[in-house]
Amino acid sequence: MSQQQMNNNTSSSNIPVSERYWTLVDKADKKFSKIRDLPYYERNRYDTYFYKVFKVYTQLWKFQQENRQKLVEAGLKRWEIGEIASRIGQLYYGQYMRTSEASYLSEAYIFYEAILTREYFKEGSFQDFNLANKQLRFLARFLMVCLVLNRREMVHQLVNQLKMLVDECKRTFQDTDFKEWKLVVQEIVRFLKADTAFMNIRPLRYSLVLDPHPDVLPHVAAPVARKNLRLRDAVLSSYHHNEVKFSELTLDTFRMLQCLEWEPSGSFYLSAGGKNGQNGALGSSRINHSQDIADPTLPPNPRKAVLYRPSLTHFIAVLATICEELPPDGVLLVYLSASGTTGHTLSPSGSGTCFNAAENITRDFQSHTIHSDGTSTSSMSSPSNSPNPSASQKKGDCISYHTGCLQFGNCWSGGLNCIYPSDLIPFTRRPLFIIIESDASEVFKAISGAEKGERAALLLSPNCSFPIGSSDASRHSVGSLLTIFLTAPLQAFCLLLGISGSDIEMIYLLSGSIDIVCANLQQGGVPSRMYASTSGCCFTKDKCLSNRSCAAG
């Protein structure tokens, strides 16, 4: 050891333990504030920042463990220890949202559970308004982790605690009405009412225990000239009036988020185990880097960007960033669930149409040619630019038209919050799998044939709607039907026929296949075979299940 290092160690040992601790806390706070508001996309760009923050919090956690008694004597409070653990839990959850690695989510759960069982925030929370807020925020964050991790028993326990804490805070701090927290309680209660136990008979994630291993599934031989593509990234977003949500996670995106992941096999977590450090605190071994907490028995999950009510510019920016980072063999899944308009074309008489929405979009892209010199020409002239307006209207007598779109905002904002099919076409230079859940989904058929490099796969919802389950059920109370079929097909099939509850749960557990369910339904006089029309509306041999007049009827 050099003389300089010996002098540094000597000087640091002369600094009081409490001063060294608060210096570390200040350093960790500064680094945490830099990454707290960074977006969950642009993941590769910020990896270095997260490793640095993890390193600082590792040092801080280890230091407070080794010097707990001295720090308590110097005035360290229990809630300050809980604050460090909560920050570490936030870091792990943030890394899960950026990487979709389930091990990060599990680590976040471990730290939050330790805070709950050791009651770090409970002492003095009803005497200190700020401390009460810290406990409320902790419960809300832990609730989100438990929801995504599918720890339903803990979810219900936390909801009860949150209700009691909000009520107690309203009685104690009468100057504050805690309106925001009452809305949080209402949100999670409504969310759990929609995402029932029936919908969670089995995990929405692909489970190696319940599902066949990918190696035994039949593979489609790819052409020699084609590359093998894999789902690498996903963009998930939904916008509906009064939709079921908790925080910024809607019911539809919550279900899609889970069905795009593997259910952890458990082999890693059994071997890793939760180790307790001295003084009942979590051991420093719980803080690991990504290479130390990956479960080698599972393939990587596709990375996901969950966007809550994005503006069009934000959505395009995220899409462009992810496409830029997409590996050469990667496929990007784009899931959009929103209300929409199908578009219409006006004639001079005010009646009739001359082009449908899909034809309009295709016409726009096919009528413009970009030349090598950067100029553009159009094979079609607008009515305003035509020397003979009447001549331009002969072909169908059109005056104006607008194409259909998805509305990700209020109607009065016009096209500022609308996503058109033409907004997605530039990104078809990369392989896309597009899922549209909307009453205007048909307008996105225009993407097919207008791709700019790679063929896009389209999965569009039906245009006609129909009741689900009981007569008072609606899309807002149970979620979008196509999304339910994609994430929980058996439950969706039963809901479509108006069957739910313990009976179908027992049938599912005993049968393990939809064939047994259909057989039982047919014995009860319910037509079990379903057909699909070209319009996408589901119906039986006898009548449309929606009892509406549609193309399938």
UniProtKB/TrEMBL annotation:
GO MF terms, alphabetically ordered: transcription corepressor activity
Annotated segments matching region Disordered: 369-393
Composition bias type Low complexity, residue spans: 375-392
GO biological process terms on file: DNA-templated transcription
A Pfam family: SCAI
InterPro entries: SCAI (IPR022709)
Protein name: Protein SCAI
Gene source species: Gossypium mustelinum (Cotton)
